[in-house]
Amino acid sequence: MGTTLVLVMTADAAVDRVSQQALTFGVGLAAGGPVHALLVGDPALAPELGEWGASEVHVADHPAFASFAPDAIAATIVELAAGLGADLVVGPGTDDGNTVMARAAARAGHPFAANCTTAVLGSPIVVTRQRWGGSLFEEAAIHAERVMLTVAPHAVVATRTGGSAAVRTFTPSLADEDLLVRVVDRIPATASGVSLAEARVVVSGGRGAGSAEGFAPVVELADLLGAAVGCSRAVTIAGWRPQTGTKIAPDLYILAGISGATQHMAGCRGAKVILAINKDAEAPVMTGADYAIVGDMREVLPAISAEIRRRRAG
Ligand SMILES: Cc1cc2nc3c(=O)[nH]c(=O)nc-3n(C[C@H](O)[C@H](O)[C@H](O)COP(=O)(O)OP(=O)(O)OC[C@H]3O[C@@H](n4cnc5c(N)ncnc54)[C@H](O)[C@@H]3O)c2cc1C
């Protein structure tokens, strides 16, 4: 591979984890060739990208980047990739990363492969990518002079190379229409502020919770563990909780009243240890879990919380 460009985004004043993984993915494909990083975020984070394998970092510089402006970032990617003569452009397979990369590919008239887990170099490049919420994998051949793809969250383990990078400022030529779409406000979804994608522990509830109010023991245990609260798609559709579809990779995933449908289990494939609580011993989730408790979540969750409190008090 000739020249590789990796889009790096930030979250909470740090390089986001999936962007670190995208860098590792890009470094692997570059096979010793130059790996340029486009940093959209705090310039102070630029030197760190050398440690993740970038040989050169281009810090996007424009007032537009004060908030998330997908068209402005897409225009920047297209301009920088053309200037560098990049053969491969890699981005993080987050919601924001896919939004930006899809717009960049559309602008440049290139095909785009989202949520890739592997890529085999050649002409064409052959990628494996997640489809249908991760419940099936598609093999696709990309015929393009400039290949644009994103890396599915947690498809690779981010690895430090211990290198260092030259840091430059890149000021794109943006048009007024590039600034029309931008985030003007953010309203946190959870009171605890623990992000699902980044959480070390996640406690989720499913339709077995019975109602929005039935989530109280799920939230109680999550609070005790400093965990993020998750849920199944059925719960989101019922309007009991807001979020679903997020890929997670916690150290511990506790799921209660969730049947373990393929699409749900695909989203938590990266979890190191899974504890399932379900009143049905035959529920599919039981085969995918490391530990299982057969019982009513309305009794089991409060019992776990009570035991944690008792031990902490003692
Ligand atoms: C394209 C596509 C993408 C999808 N993506 C996702 C996704 O990302 N995430 C996702 O979650 N779903 C996804 N789905 C939906 C998925 O197929 C399931 O419909 C959904 O996960 C079911 O949610 P559930 O397990 O909460 O509900 P159910 O399947 O109704 O299961 C409820 C479970 O709770 C148990 N239970 C009931 N009462 C109690 C109790 N008191 N105590 C303990 N256990 C109890 C039952 O035994 C049962 O196992 C997707 C579907 C499609 C078609």
Task: Please provide a written account of the structure.
With about 325 residues, the protein is an alpha/beta fold. The chain is about 30% helix and about 25% strand. It has nine helices and 15 strands. The protein has helices at about 15-30, 45-50, 70-85, 95-110, 215-225, 235-240, 260-265, 285-290, 295-314, and strands at about 5-10, 15, 35-40, 55-60, 90, 110-120, 125-130, 135-140, 145-150, 165-170, 200-205, 230, 250-255, 275-280, 290-295. The strands form two sheets. Strands 1, 2, 3, 4, 5, 6, 7, 8, 9 and 10 form a ten-stranded mixed sheet that branches. Strands 12-11-13-14-15 form a five-stranded parallel sheet. Strand 11, helix 5 and strand 12 form a beta-alpha-beta unit. The radius of gyration is 21 Å and the shape is elongated. The N and C termini lie far apart (about 60 Å). The model has no long low-confidence stretch (mean pLDDT about 95).
Helix and strand topology:
Elements: E1 4-11, E2 14-15, H1 17-30, E3 35-40, H2 46-51, E4 56-60, H3 70-84, E5 88-92, H4 95-108, E6 112-120, E7 125-131, E8 136-142, E9 147-151, E10 166-170, E11 201-205, H5 216-225, E12 228-231, H6 233-238, E13 252-256, H7 262-267, E14 273-278, H8 285-288, E15 291-294, H9 297-313
Bound molecules: flavin-adenine dinucleotide.
Q: Count up the helices.
A: 9
The helicity comes to 25-40%
Q: Characterize the largest beta sheet: strand count, sense, and whether it forms a barrel.
A: 10 strands, mixed
Q: Report how far apart the termini are.
A: 60 Å
Write down the overall geometry. elongated
Radius of gyration: 21 Å
The hetero molecules present are: flavin-adenine dinucleotide
SS strand fraction: 25-35%
> How confident overall, as mean pLDDT?
93
Query: By helix and strand content, what is the structural category?
Result: alpha/beta
Give start-end ranges of low-pLDDT stretches: none
Count of individual beta strands: 15
Order of helices and strands: EEHEHEHEHEEEEEEHEHEHEHEH
